[in-house]
Design goal:
38% of the residues lie in helices and 13% in strands. It has 383 residues and is of the alpha/beta class. The strands form 3 sheets. An 8-stranded parallel barrel has the order 3-4-5-6-7-10-11-12, surrounded by 7 helices. It has a two-stranded antiparallel sheet with strand order 1-2. The protein has a two-stranded antiparallel ribbon with strand order 8-9. A hairpin with a 2-residue loop joins strand 1 and strand 2. The two termini are 35 Å apart. Bound molecules: flavin mononucleotide (FMN). The site of flavin mononucleotide has 22 residues, from loops. It catalyses: a 5,6-dihydrouridine in tRNA + NAD(+) = a uridine in tRNA + NADH + H(+); a 5,6-dihydrouridine in tRNA + NADP(+) = a uridine in tRNA + NADPH + H(+). Pfam families: Dus. Its EC number is 1.3.1.-. It comes from Micromonospora echinospora (Micromonospora purpurea).
Length: 383
């Protein structure tokens, strides 16, 4: 692969993007990942309504490390005007260097209102929304990108048409998760669809879905010709995957297989970064430590996946309230335990079953209706 990934005035190497993941890709986790390798690390999803209404929780979520560049922010919106207003806030307050638009969310509470993965079906509204964001961002030189799924289900695919519309609107790239909304996180991602999109567009295309190891990323590039890859679940409990990805794109053979002792050190660093993050917005240091430790709990099972660690110790680790407690429990792990090779190449995180996509009444018959769906804005960020 030649050259980095162009994102406005930024040249990114390796062409690797940490996927936005609500509840995961906060400033602490992104720092942990960024310490491993290059790329772009996208923050948790921010809803345009919450940003325009200056929701305090949302404003706190827009946090970047002092040396984090480019600062990459994902917005969720359904209304072109609200989206443009949110983008203007980002630009005027210099909150980020890159804005990604989320059209991939398959959650029923979102699609039932016509948002997320349901929205590109209303092609005129989709084009208007993306254009509104690009027009509001481009005077400041802030690039806008879109992230989407293949469509609602196999009978209602939207990705090629939506990709062309986004290109026409002036986005810097289009990222495709090779699943439909109906698939949720089940089955396997359709890399052939990613190849089809790559062939259809002139702007860079990024592929997303089922990259569990660095060599999967190289395979995806070889299979699809994409300009970059987006990694979500594969890095859960494995921030060092970004070191492997950097090595892989540089053509270097090394891959990390940390011992349990090294994993424990990474867990400790992750928890400390979350405590630091939560303490910044907290009334007391004790509260910040507890909130950071609570946020860390969800990561424990991912870090320990495949290691021979007893159920009781796992449960205790998943209930920590302080760093001292974490230290005590991590001290009980066998540091020499080698990395479980059986955990390599395996799905991690969500792998739920396919499901019916709930849509607003008459949605499928309204492709050319460009009115904004009622109540599809979300007031809460990160979900
Ligand atoms: C816990 C979780 C939260 C997610 N939150 C978002 C989000 O806020 N915005 C978004 O565009 N995608 C979100 N996604 C989807 C991922 O960005 C990514 O597209 C998906 O996981 C497929 O990539 P993967 O196979 O590498 O995991 C989320 C996924 C997970 C597992």
């Amino acid at each position: 692969m030649s050259g980095g990934l162009r994102l406005g005035r930024h040249e990114v190497w390796p062409p690797v993007v940490l996927a936005p993941m609500a509840g995961i890709t906060n400033v602490g986790f992104r720092r942990l990942c960024r310490e491993q390798g290059g790329g772009i690390y996208v923050c948790e999803m921010i809803t345009t309504t919450a940003l325009v209404e200056r929701n305090p929780k949302t404003l706190r979520m827009i946090a970047f490390g002092s040396e984090e560049r480019p600062r990459s922010l994902q917005l969720y919106g359904t209304d072109p005007e609200t989206t443009a207003a949110a983008v203007r806030i980002v630009v005027e307050k210099d909150l980020a260097d890159h804005i990604d638009l989320n059209f991939g969310c398959p959650v029923p509470k979102v699609t039932r209102r016509g948002g997320g993965a349901a929205l590109p079906w209303r092609r005129r509204l989709f084009a208007r929304l993306v254009k509104a964001a690009v027009d509001a961002a481009s005077p400041a030189g802030v690039p806008v990108t879109v992230k989407m799924r293949k469509g609602i289900d196999d009978d209602h695919l939207t990705y090629v048409e939506a990709g062309l519309a986004a290109q026409e609107a002036g986005v810097a790239w289009v990222a495709l998760h090779g699943r439909t909304a109906a698939q949720r996180y089940s089955g396997t991602a359709d890399w052939d669809a990613i190849a089809t999109l790559k062939q259809a567009l002139d702007v860079p295309v990024l592929g997303n879905g089922d990259i569990w190891e660095a060599d999967d990323a190289l395979r995806m590039v070889a299979h699809t010709g994409v300009d970059g890859v987006v990694i979500g679940r594969g890095c859960l409990g494995r921030p060092w995957l970004f070191a492997d990805l950097h090595a892989a794109f540089d053509g270097r053979p090394e891959r990390r297989l940390p011992t349990l002792g090294e994993v424990a050190m990474t867990m400790r660093r992750h928890a400390a970064l979350l405590v630091e993050q939560f303490s910044a917005g907290s009334r007391t240091p004790a509260r910040g430590e507890r909130d950071g430790c609570t946020d860390f709990r969800k990561h424990v099972a991912w870090y320990l996946k495949g290691f021979p660690v007893g159920g009781e110790l796992r449960r205790s680790l998943a209930m920590i309230e302080s760093l001292a407690q974490l230290d005590d429990l991590l001290g009980k792990l066998d540091p020499a335990e080698p990395f479980p090779l059986g955990a390599l190449g395996q799905p991690r995180g969500r792998t739920n079953s396919p499901g019916k996509v709930f849509l607003p009444d008459g949605w499928l018959a309204s492709r050319d209706d460009d009115s904004v769906p009622e109540g599809a804005e979300l007031a809460d960020s990160g979900g």
